[in-house]
Amino acid sequence: MLNNLVTTQLNYFKQEDKDPRFNCALVTRKICDQVGHSVTPFITTLFDFVIQDHPQLLEYTQEVYDLAWEKLHIGQWNSVKQGWRTMYSLSCWIHSLLKCFQENTTMQHWTSIIERCDMALMMGDDTYSDCIHDLVELVHSHVIQQFGLPTIIIPDTIEPPTKRRRIEQSIPHVQRLPLSKFKEHVDKQEPVIITDSIQDWIAHQQWKNPKYLLKKAAYRTVPIEIGKDYLDQDWTQKLLPFHEYLRDYVYGTSTKTGYLAQHTLFEQIRPLSSDIEEPMYGLAFGNLVSRNAWFGPKGTVSPLHTDPYDNLLVQVVGEKYVRLYSNSENERLYPQTSGLLTNTSQIRDLENVSDEFPEFKNAKYVECTLQPGEILFIPKLFWHYVESQSVSFSVSYWFDK
Asked: Where residue 1 falls among pLDDT bands split at 50, 70, 90?
């Protein structure tokens, strides 16, 4: 099945009645218009080699990859021209297809193909994403069939949840809130917790089982934040196979906190996306801007900050403590005054606040311990602090008006 897919995908560029994505002249023109005509020889030679099954195609694809990779790492990410991202995806995809034909039976060979496909899905554009999804999912299944699932040792006694905070200013809970009533909360910008609304999600039933997650994503590459939170002086990011993240950070004994945070995991790993669905309460908003995964061990923290979108935070596994402040409390929350994090408070520990911030104690808030199966509506620009009380998996849906 894998060889058939590889052959079929390589032949896309040889068909006469072509999808525009595989029309070599159109793709070349599009990329060159975006990044400059100096890349024309690279793209035309790449396509010529594909059509000819040239013996140096693998090596040449690596050259195109190296060029695109270099351009992706110059300047700010949002200033990278789309043509470079298209070149990156294209070179990752073709290189991965060719590697599948090599006679190499080692796990490292196959996992390197998975890694390159995942990098294309995370850093490339979506021109060839459906092809890359099909390829990486088949390769992932092949690795599991050939080498099995990695072993993750789950402690016999999982560390108990953090002692719950005493909830004094509770956010209202409503069971299966009708959409019309939810819209009233949106109009008034009032937080609310909706219970019993994701009972039909496969994720709600299965994601608490590590073996299930491994079957879906064991060898896939994911970005992990390392450090107490993103304000930590030693905070950094690294790429890891999903099973290593589970082994070392979620169920392991690493002295550093690892957090799979604010990542578009479901656009990257389709088998996990099929386990969830957009809550019906999204109908109260305009467009879905982003959906992100938040998965980590007990003790992960999102510092007190604000976001520019309405948020439906769905708690799938475990518990999270959440505290919310209206944006009318801005002055009492002491936002960072410069740099890229002016949406984040200078206050790190809400229970031990420095005398530098005397007005913080007067700021009004509401709070909750969010339970599995609950959806929290966080209004646009509301300040929120989030701390996991146990191993936790959440999904956030951001909407604009």
From this structure: confident
pTM: 0.94
Number of CB atoms found within 10 A of residue 1's CB: 8
pLDDT digits (tens, 9 = 90+) for 337-382: 988 899 999 999 999 999 999 999 999 999 999 999 999 999 999 9
- Assigned CATH class of 173-399: mainly beta
Domains of the chain by residue range: 2-147, 173-399
Q: 159-193, pLDDT tens digit by residue?
A: 556 666 777 789 999 998 999 999 999 999 999 99
Residue type, 186: V
Are 118 and 157 in contact by the 8 Å Cβ rule? The answer is no
Q: Kindly tell me the sign of the dihedral angle through the C-alpha atoms of 227, 230, 235, 236.
A: positive
CA 352 to chain centre: 32
SS (H, E, C) the chain: CHHHHHHHHHHHHHCCCCCHHHCHHHHHHHHHHHHCHHHHHHHHHHHHHHHHCCCCHHHHHHHHHHHHHHHHCCCCHHHCCHHHHHHHHHHHHHHHHHHHCCCCCCHHHHHHHHHHHHHHHHHCCCCCHHHHHHHHHHHHHHHHHHHCCCCCCCCCCCCCCCCCCCCCCECCEEECCCHHHHHHHHHHCCCEEEECCCCCCHHHHHCCCHHHHHHHHCCCEEEEEECCCCCCCCCEEEEEEHHHHHHHHHCCCCCCCEEEEEECHHHHCHHHHCCCCCCHHHHHCCCEEEEEEEEECCCCEEEEEECCCEEEEEEEECCEEEEEECHHHHHHHCECCCCCCCCEECCCCCCCCCCCCHHHHHCCCEEEEECCCCEEEECCCCEEEEEECCCEEEEEEEECC
Are 295 and 393 contacting, i.e. CB atoms less than 8 angstroms apart? yes
Mean pLDDT value across the chain: 94
Spatial separation of the C-alpha atoms in residues 171 and 45, rounded to whole Å: 61
Q: Which amino acid is at 189?
A: Q
